[in-house]
Amino acid sequence: MQLDGFNEQFIRDQALAAGFANVELYVQNLLDRDAERIAIQEGIDAAAAGRVRDFDEFDREFRLRNSIPADH
């Protein structure tokens, strides 16, 4: 992995300290974690803007789509 403009040893040390075998795995983990944060923020923003669904409606559709019996 090319680390232009960064202290390569510092980044390698950070990756190892975080428990990763190499920089590539460390960076991929950071990207995955950031993607999760972005998805959560999008949900928060949608709710704040009023783009929400009734839970019962969602639950019915989710159970039907995934062949999960209804709780009755």
Written overview of the protein:
The chain has 72 residues and is mainly alpha-helical. The protein has a domain at 36-72. Helices cover 65% and strands 0% of the residues. The protein has helices spanning 8-17, 23-48, 55-65. 1% of the residues are buried.
Write the layout of secondary structure elements.
Layout lengths: L7 H10 L5 H26 L6 H11 L7
Helix pairs in contact: 1-2
**Number of DSSP strand runs:** 0
The helix/strand series, from N terminus to C terminus, equals HHH
Give the percentage of residues in beta strands: under 5%
Helix content: 55-70%
Please, what is the oligomeric state?
A: single chain
Given the C-alpha coordinates, what overall shape results? elongated
Q: Separation of termini? A: 55 Å
- Alpha carbon gyration radius: 20 Å
> Which structural class matches the secondary elements?
mainly alpha
**Count of runs of 4 or more consecutive helical residues:** 3
Low-confidence stretches: none
For the largest beta-sheet, the strand count, sense and barrel status come to: none
Determine the mean pLDDT.
91
